[in-house]
Write a structure and sequence with these properties.
single chain, 458 residues, alpha/beta, Aspartate Aminotransferase, domain 2, 4-stranded parallel beta sheet, two-stranded antiparallel ribbon, 14 helices, 48% helix, flat
């Protein structure tokens, strides 16, 4: 099915999308002119080019132009919405850098709305057209499936149930077929690709796929091997990468979307700098209050465990007595949490000003330094101490597979009411498994609402 990788078709679809975006702009300009005065149309070329550039980048990286790919239809509208949201936000940021004569918020939002409508309609039209053609047995790729076991049966069933994928199963062969017999089948069949699905374990007979792949190679037939190794894990995602010049599969439990990771880092830097400004403004008052009410340094520094076990020093305004760490061993019997975390509502180590800072989360302000340094994120899982990690069960360790954060899902889910460490970890894993930049924004908004309600922390 090499046609699914057609660069010419992808480029053609991209050009059509660009044409629709230009049409959407001229239509938006004409309509907006009826209600608001605008400058000459050529003044807004940066708006169009900027938005189009962002759209093309996100659409290309999310395979929106790969219309012949069998999975193109899956989650199509969800991808279109995500692409336009990303492109619109970045495009809008450009408007603030342009002079008044080169931007118009009303024109921009009208332009974005029409562009979305045109592109969405085009994608739905293409989707229905391709599905109709393939259901009529046109544009179909005949394939042979060689395999045994549950995965082979699932692949067979999915091909039959999804004719819109453009696949037609010519024959299903068991792995017991000899290389010579397999060669004869290929010689006498019109086949565009051979699928191999091999079980991970075979108790009675050994099987080597090498000779079958060599036959496909010699006869010029593409071969696709479905590696059943993915079934050996429960929720880890598997991705193909070339590494050290060799094909490899990598499994991970955190979504490694480079675009969103880049946005998350930019988001962290912007938020970290804003938080650092707040730290500078409040430092004289908080430092004075800390010094006047208790002996010891202004800042509390402690070694914490970050992403994948990397240790770093966390910074906080000191809200406890200077010998708090020594007293902790004596208070561990009064721990109100079950598991590898220490929490105590009426902790005698907390100073008077510390209670106020904790209630308003002001003691967390220095952690914006950790965010800027890249040791922490605005949103993530709370960084544990090495002693706490030493008490972890195996499945607990996945909560430190991402960069820790100042706030997180646990903090906005009634952290003071959760006394079981396993429940805390489950919330952290829910965040990890459903992570997106929009999820981060949602958690930050909830964090602000929690602070406004003055939900005290301890």
């Amino acid at each position: 099915m090499l046609k699914e990788h057609s660069s010419f078709l992808k480029q053609t679809i991209a050009l059509i999308d660009c044409f629709l975006i230009v049409i959407a702009f001229y239509l938006s300009y004409s309509i907006t002119m009826l209600f608001r005065p605008l400058h000459p149309v050529l003044n807004y070329w940066v708006m169009v080019v900027g938005f189009m550039g962002f759209y093309l980048y996100f659409a290309w990286t999310r395979s929106l132009f790969s219309v012949l790919h069998f999975a193109w239809m899956t989650g199509l509208m969800r991808r279109v919405v995500a692409i336009f949201i990303s492109a619109c936000i970045l495009g809008a940021s450009i408007l603030y850098l342009l002079p008044h004569s080169h931007n118009s918020r009303y024109l921009y939002f009208t332009f974005a709305a029409f562009s979305f409508a045109f592109i969405a309609f085009e994608k739905l039209f293409v989707k229905r057209t391709i599905a109709r053609i393939r259901r009529n047995n046109s544009n179909i790729s005949p394939v042979i499936l060689v395999g045994r076991g549950r995965m082979a049966s699932q692949i067979h069933q999915e091909i039959v149930c999804h004719p819109e994928w453009g696949l037609r199963l010519v024959r299903k062969l068991d792995i017991g077929i000899s290389p010579a017999e397999f060669e004869e089948v290929l010689k006498n069949s019109y086949v565009e690709e051979v699928f191999f699905s091999i079980p991970r374990k075979m108790t009675r007979e050994g099987f080597s796929v090498d000779s079958y792949l060599q036959i496909c190679e010699e006869m010029g037939r593409p071969a696709r091997v479905f590696l059943n190794i993915a079934a050996s894990t429960y929720f880890a995602r598997w991705e193909y990468h070339r590494f050290m010049g060799r094909p490899t599969l990598i499994s991970h439990t955190v979504e490694l979307d480079p675009d969103q990771m880049l946005f998350k880092r930019i988001f962290d830097l912007v938020g970290g700098l804003a938080g650092f400004l707040g730290l500078i403004l409040l430092y004289p008052f908080l430092a004075t209050a800390i010094k006047l009410t208790s002996k010891g340094p202004v800042f509390f520094k402690q070694v914490r465990v970050g992403k994948n076990g990397k240790r770093f020093v966390i910074y906080k305004f000191r809200s406890m007595t200077a010998d708090a760490e020594k007293q902790k061993k004596e208070l561990e019997k009064l721990n109100e949490c079950d598991g590898a975390i220490f929490k105590m509502k009426d902790d005698p180590r907390i100073t008077r000003i510390g209670k106020i800072m904790r209630k308003l989360s002001l003691d967390e302000l220095p952690q914006f330094i950790n965010v800027i340094k890249g040791e922490m994120s605005l949103v993530g899982t709370r960084p544990p101490t090495p002693d706490e990690v030493g008490k972890y069960q195996k499945w607990h360790h996945r909560r430190i597979s991402i960069r820790p954060g100042i706030t997180g899902l646990w903090q906005v889910s009634g952290r003071n009411k959760i006394s079981n460490f396993d429940e805390i970890v489950k919330l952290d894993l829910k965040y990890i498994d459903n992570w997106s930049i929009w999820f981060d924004i949602k958690i930050i908004i909830k964090t602000v609402l929690v602070l406004l309600k003055r939900d005290s922390a301890y």
